[in-house]
Design goal:
Blueprint lengths: L20 E2 L4 H8 L16 H19 L4 E5 L7 H7 L3 H22 L6 E7 L14 H18 L3 E7 L2 H14 L3 E5 L13 H12 L5 E5 L3 H4 L13 E6 L6 H5 L9 H14 L5 E4 L5 H14 L1
Parallel strand pairs: 1-2, 1-8, 2-3, 3-4, 4-5, 5-6, 6-7, 7-8
Helix pairs in contact: 2-11, 4-5, 5-6, 6-7, 10-11
């Protein structure tokens, strides 16, 4: 089996050209609540270790790809590696060697999907995904930026060697971890995207404003990230903090919102899935794009599935 794929877009990420790109929705919530998978520690990457699991992931991605193709949009292929970092891996029974193998395999898996489905009108860009060292809702112990750089650097180097086009940090809860990740990506020579999660008041879980976080990372890294995103928050949690007059807002190019208006604490303690209203979510995205037309990478997070992303794509194509 191949050990790597050719990084097709590392030097020219196509989403930077302004074309609308769709991404998938809430992978883990879909697999758990709709398909009955038991994901240890909310981790989807172990599915790559079985034929049944790989088949489920193929089916998952192939629900989304036609949504982009039919609308003339690009598609972001995010690896299933949000939990595939050392601290979470050991809790699931993966040592460093086995964890390195599955991180690499996650990129190769997406390479196979791209080879099968990509067209000239639908570029498919591969993202190596890193998640927070701690919980995605609660930062708990905040690392220094130096610790975060060292911690995430291990996984990012694997993504680079495997052939990912770029790397994404999702659900970052604090400035230091986002900054450390961006530094690690820069050191690895990889384009990067940093995505912060926000509470119902529009602030990071550690209390900082989104603008503060973006400006701090940009200042410390000489604007190293290709762009920023917001994920794991409902549009009503952050639409009021985006400031059309602020330079930092122009750095936000992507959204992966939750379907639910619930707080992180409420979601964490909930035994049911709040799928919200897919059409309403699509209209909320459309309204955001009418105010901030530079935002062009659109997907979902917790509680969303292909229905939500379909509505987002349909609504935002009209806004474009």
């Amino acid at each position: 089996m191949a050990k790597s794929i050719e990084p097709k877009y590392r030097n020219r990420l196509p989403q930077l050209g302004g074309k609308l790109f769709l991404a998938d929705g809430g992978l883990e919530t879909t697999l758990i609540f709709h398909e009955g998978w038991d994901l240890p520690k909310f981790a989807a990457f172990p599915l790559l270790d079985s034929e049944r699991g790989r088949a489920a992931l193929h089916t998952y991605y192939e629900r989304y790809i036609p949504l982009a193709r039919e609308r003339g949009m690009g598609f972001v292929l995010d690896a299933v590696t949000w939990r595939a970092n050392p601290d979470w891996g050991v809790q699931i029974g993966y040592d460093r060697k086995r964890l390195a193998e599955v991180n690499r395999d996650a990129i190769l898996f997406l390479g196979e999907i791209r080879e099968r489905h990509e067209t000239r009108a639908m570029p498919m860009v591969i993202s190596g995904v890193a998640g927070p060292r701690g919980d995605g809702y609660d930062p708990a112990k905040v690392m220094s930026a130096e610790e975060a750089e060292d911690y995430h650097g291990w996984q990012l180097q694997i993504f680079r060697e495997a052939g990912a086009d770029y790397v994404s940090a999702y659900t970052m809860t604090n400035i230091n971890e986002g900054l450390g990740f961006a530094r690690a990506a820069k050191a690895a020579g990889m384009p990067s995207v940093v995505s912060f999660t926000l509470e119902t008041d529009g602030r990071l879980p550690t209390g900082e404003r989104l603008g503060e976080a973006i400006e701090a990372v940009d200042e410390a890294t000489q604007h190293a990230p290709a762009y920023y995103m917001i994920n794991c928050a409902h549009p009503t949690h952050f639409d009021h903090v985006l400031d059309g007059q602020a330079a930092w807002t122009k750095r936000v190019k992507g959204l992966r919102a939750n379907s639910s208006t619930r707080s992180h604490a409420e979601l964490d303690n909930s035994s049911d899935l709040d799928a919200g209203n897919p059409e309403e979510l699509g209209q909320q995205y459309r309204e955001l794009l009418s105010r901030f037309p530079h935002i062009n990478v659109l997907g979902g997070c917790c509680g969303t599935d292909h229905r939500h992303v379909g509505c987002i794509g349909a609504a935002c194509r009209k806004a474009a």
